[in-house]
Amino acid sequence: MHTPRQSPAVAPVLVSLDDGIARLTLNRPDKLNALNYATIDALMAHLDAIETDPAVRAVVLTGAGDRAFSAGGDIREFSGSVARGVAAATQEFVRRGQAMTARIEAFPKPIIVAVNGLAFGGGCEITEAAHLAIASERALFAKPEIRLGMPPTFGGTQRLSRLAGRKRALALLLTGERFSPAQALEMGLVNAVVPHDELIPAASDLARRIVRHAPLAVSAVITAVTRGLNMGIAEGLQVESEQFARMVPTADLAEGLAAWIDGREPLYQGR
Ligand code: COA
């Protein structure tokens, strides 16, 4: 896999590849993996490389250290942008963070967040944007931006209300109070809660259960669901139809149908 050039000692995001599944690790453990601009930019660069690499079929995204997935936007750094005024704050902080969560949400390969600890602010917003998420029993969530005198800015006012419903989202956004993995599960923010030691194996297992399927079909499902959620049902059905139409000429659809008819396991080629 081509990866952006970084010194491993200081790389803000670590990357490894195991059997088609890339693991990205936010790597500022002494800052609770707070999302400074370098970390966001490195994550985006890794996603660019992964998107075009056929050897990577899915991504597991987690945090380094034993305390945090991510404590959110780097407050010291974005305070500087705020001090420079609206244009700088919007360009440097809001647009960058929104582009990151939009990229994760629309990424054509499945992204599974493994929430290994605190997921506050931007850490929670990444979890909201990801296709799937598994939380450790040690995870802890919060939307604490209100305590800083601001609303969330990485999509945090938009995606949680769509996921969990307006009143549940507003209660969390307006109080800034912490919530448990069990509450996150109940709200549909995560797919499962597992013992801490089982977190990465559980996320990797979920990835493996997906990547055995045709990559183009996986991508089509992600696209149809993600785009469709933000449209009316008629337009959503049109997207679904278009995604199916894209599959019709592919070798993988022919193979999936033939394998079923022959009673054998399909062998997908990604085309
Ligand atoms: N931005 C920048 N630095 C952060 C950070 C953030 N969002 N969250 C934690 N850090 C840094 C701390 O400044 C500290 O660095 P230092 O050792 O150089 O002083 C280090 O990470 C450890 O955090 P600390 O606050 O000492 O840990 P704690 O256990 O006392 O508190 C939190 C943990 C999560 C409650 C606290 O760090 C916090 O409130 N963070 C901000 C959460 C937030 O508001 N996120 C949304 C931002 S938009």
From TrEMBL:
Question: Keyword set for this entry?
Answer: Lyase
NCBIfam families according to UniProt: PRK05980.1
Against Pfam families, the record matches this protein to: ECH_1
Can the keyword Lyase be found in this entry's annotation?
yes
Q: Which family does it belong to?
A: Belongs to the enoyl-CoA hydratase/isomerase family.
BP GO terms, sorted:
fatty acid beta-oxidation
Please give the name of this protein: Short-chain-enoyl-CoA hydratase
Q: Which CDD domains match?
A: crotonase-like (cd06558)
InterPro entries (UniProt xref): ClpP/crotonase-like_dom_sf (IPR029045), Enoyl-CoA_hydra/iso (IPR001753), Enoyl-CoA_hydra_C (IPR014748)
> Which is one GO molecular function term here?
lyase activity
